[in-house]
Amino acid sequence: MSLKTSETTERVVVAQAAAAHTRAADSLDGLPHVVILPEGAGVQLNLGDLWAYRELLYFLTWRDVKVRYKQTLMGVAWVVIQPLLTMLVFTLVFRRFVPLAEGVIPYPVFAYAGLLLWNFFSTSVSSGTNSLIGNTSLVTKVYFPRAFIPAAAVGAGLVDFCVGAVLLVPLAAFYGLRPSWGLLLLPVFVLLTAALALAVGMVISALTVKYRDLRHALPFLLQLWMFASPVIYPVGVVPERWRWLLAANPLTGALEGFRASLAGTGFDWAVVAVPSLVAPPLIALALYVFRRLEDTFADVI
User: Fold this and answer.
1) Nearest to residue 176, comparing CAs of 96, 109, 86?
2) Is the pLDDT of residue 54 over 80?
3) Is 153 exposed, middle or buried (0-12, 13-18, 19+ CB in 10 A)?
4) What 3-state class would DSSP assign to 46?
5) DSSP secondary structure, 235-263, as one string
6) If both were cysteines, with which of 9, 104, 171, 279 could 195 make a disulfide (CB 3.0 to 4.6 Å apart)?
């Protein structure tokens, strides 16, 4: 009799445990969760987490925008002042001291458009490089897709770009540029630049966690990259035999396409296609490298 009672009690306990497990599983339905796999399973991209935590990207971006202009004298006006003053300086140099042949696009519009897009790229990469180190408490204490941190830097840079682009419209109208169907492609070249900035920022930010001297070398590397891109000079000043090297730079296609969209001139499709072909695999490679190094962030940051 006692044996039967014991078996009955055991069945009841097992049934209760199974019911409790079912209720716990049902209560977790729809909630984000993490599955931890061994290193031998390979790099897990966890693309579903990017969608599950998508609202966090908005809040991180908005936080970066507010922090950037908190307690500043001019506030967001710096976004316009910086490329505007730089454009005036280069216009004076290349019109008075080292004259350039007048191109299809008036040089002030040419320079401002190039500097606006370049500042967006360089600021996004620079902010993204230091983003993980500047968010140590988040990285070490809270789980979320860490790729959102450098992505938020690009999002904040995109907000700055939109503010700076407000001056671009009256500047283009003042110099007699008329909109055309190519203007519809302008956001495409902005997004391609954002994709390139995100890819570069993700890789360098992940490497900077371990190798802190990269953030000191980055300003010099960005300066070299600027002079290797047609930001302040037209492609036509480069000797013919070296233009293929300039075209291999994906930012060249983004800059040239952006200006052509704005001015309504023809597109050099061979050059414009380069960032379109480079950006997707570069993003995939950057995400792979970032996820591969992400597991060590909390240990070395």
Assistant:
1) 109
2) yes
3) buried
4) coil
5) GGGS-GGGHHHHHHSHHHHHHHHHHHHHH
6) 279
